[in-house]
Amino acid sequence: MEDLEQVILDTLGSAGKIDSTLEFALEKGVEHQAVVGVFKSLLTDAYAAQLGETTDTEWGLTEEGKNVAADGSPEYLCYCAVPAGEEGLTMSDLQAAVGATINKLGLGPCMKNKWLAKKGDLVLRTADGVIDTVADMLRKVDAGAYTEVPDKELQALKKRKMVTMVSKKVYSVGKGANYRPRRVKKVLELTREMLVKVEEGTPAGRHWSEVEFKKVNLNSMGAPVGGGNFHPLLKVRAEFRRILMEMGFEEMPTSKWVESSFWNFDALFQPQSHPARDAHDTFFMKTPAACNSFPEEYYDRVKDIHINGGFGSLGYGEGAFKMEEAAKNILRTHTTAISAQMLYKLANQEGGFTPKKYFSVDRVFRNEAMDATHLCEFHQVEGFVADYNLTLGNLIGTIRTFFEKIGITQIRFKPAYNPYTEPSMEIFGYHPELKKWTEIGNSGMFRPEMLRPMGFPDGVRVIAWGLSLERPTMIKYKINNIRDLFGHKADLPAQRNAPIARF
Ligand code: PHE
Predict the structure, then answer these.
(1) Distance of alpha carbon 138 from its chain centroid, rounded?
(2) DSSP state of 86
(3) Centre of ligand 1 from the C-alpha of residue 344, in Å
(4) Of 356, 355, 357, which Cα lies nearest the Cα of 244?
(5) pTM of full prediction above 0.70
(6) 334 lines ligand 1 (CB under 6 A)
(7) How much is the pLDDT for 228?
C-alpha cells in the first residue's frame, strides 16, 4: 500500500469512521499491525479518535507453521524427494535427502494420504501431482483469512503445533478533533526564516503563524550527560597526592609554567654552558624574554659558586656566569625549579630553618622529538625531605615506601649523574607483566653547591626524587603510546570507560 496513512484519512473523510481495524486491514490486504500503528500515530495528534476497542482471538502461525508456510509441509517435501515410477527410493536414501526430522514427521501423513507406499525396502509414489493443502491452509491463516479454513483442519494443524490462538486488540476509529484530510507535518524548530517579515516580491517562506509546532515536553528528564569524568592522569595524580600527604608531605605551589633560567638551572648548580640549556632541549620565551628580579645576595652567591666553586668543587671558571643567561625566561624543564624556590624560602624563613617534606605534581616542557614515549610536555611528580643529617639510607627508605604505596614493590637503584645531586640514583621498578625492570624515576641528595648558597646551616641535607606521572599511568591503564593518553590524539571515550585497575 502506497500511503496507508492517507488511505485511512481518506476513509475517515468519506465514511466518517472505520468500524474495525481488522476488517479494514483484511479488506485493503495489509497487515493489521500496520493499520494499528498508523491509527496510534494519528491518535497522538488527534487526527483520529478511538471509538471502541475489542479483543479478538484468532488463529495465527507458530514458528513451525511459518516455516511450513514458507518451505512446504514435511509430507509434501517427502513426496517430492521420491522419484516417480517403479524405481523409488530406499528408506535410508529418503532420510538422507530430506533430513531425519522431516522424514519422521512427513512419512506418516504421506502413507495416510496414500501419496507414498512401502514396497520391501523401497518407498514408491502412489499418487501423481499432489497438492500441499497443509501449506496452503497455513498461508491463508497467515493472511488473516482463517475463516476460509474448516475448523476441523484448524484443530488438526493445532495438534501439529503449526497454528495457535492469538489475541489482538481491534479498534473502531472515528475522526479526531484535529482531523484534516491531509496530515500536516509538525515543525520541530523555530527558524530565523519563520520570524523574518517577508518583503514584498520575495518568495514567501512559511511564517511561524502558519506552521504547527511539535509540543515540547519541558518536564522530561533528558538523557544523562556522560561528561565530567576525570582524565586518567588526574586520577593517578589524586592517588599520588593522597599517598604523599599520608607520608607527611605538603604540596608546593606550582602554578606557573614560565620560569627563569636562574631558578630552573643556575640555582641547581647546572653550568650555563650545559647542553640541556640549549634551544634543542629547552623552550625559550619570546615575550617576556627576560626576568631579572632575583634575591640579590643569593644571586651573587650563586654566581660566585658557578665561577669559583666551593665545597670541593672547582667551579666553572671566569666568565662562566652571565646575568643575560640567568635572566632568560623558559618553560620550566623540570619541577626541581619549584623545589629550588621552596628550599630557598625554607632556608630564609622567619625563625630560621625547620625540617620539612614537600612534593609537587605538575607540568614540565622539553623541546624533544616526539615519539611513542616522549611528548614535548609531560608531568613530573617530585618530592624532597629537608632535615639534619639525612643519609642515602633515608632516601632509599623514602623512595621504597612511596613506590610500595603506589603498588611497585620491587625496586632497584643504579648510580647516575645529575648536576645538582650527589650521589644520584636512577630508580628501576620490576614490571611483573612485562617481566622486566624499567626506569621509573631519578633521585639524589642535593649538592652543598646548591644548598649552601641558599643559606642552609651546616648539617642540613636534602634528599629528593622525581618521576613522570605519565609512565605509571600508562602502566596502570595499559596504554602503549603516550599520545593515546595525552594531547589531541587521546581517545576520550576509551579513557572514560577504562576500568579502574591497580598496577
Ligand atoms: N629533576 C630530575 C628530572 O627532571 C628529577 C630529580 C628530582 C632528580 C630530584 C633528582 C632529584 O629528571
Answers:
(1) 49
(2) S
(3) 17
(4) 357
(5) no
(6) yes
(7) 58
- Which residue, among 487, 23, 15, 502, has the nearest Cα to 231 in the 3D structure? 487
Res 407: pLDDT = 85
Does residue 335 line the site of ligand 1, with CB under 6 A? Answer: no
Q: What is the distance between the terminal CA atoms of the chain, rounded to a whole angstrom?
A: 63
441 ligand 1 Cβ < 6 A: no
Write down the pLDDT at residue 226: 60
| Res 20: pLDDT | 94
CA distance 119 to 126: 11
Choose one of 334, 363, 417 to mutate for the ligand 1 pocket test, by most ligand atoms within 8 angstroms of C-beta: 334
Q: Which three cell numbers stand for residue 12?
A: 475517515
The Cα 305–Cα 310 span in angstroms is 6
Output phi, psi for 385, to 5 deg: -125, 125
Helix (H) or strand (E) holding 331: strand 329-331
Helices 4-15 and 32-44, axial angle in degrees (round to 10): 70
Q: Please compute Rg for the chain using Cα positions.
A: 43
Q: Which stretches in the chain have pLDDT values below 50?
A: 501-503
* HEC string for 451-467: HHHHCCCCCEEEEEEEE
Cell matching residue 229 = 569524568
pLDDT tens sequence across 291-324: 978 999 999 999 999 999 999 999 999 999 999 9
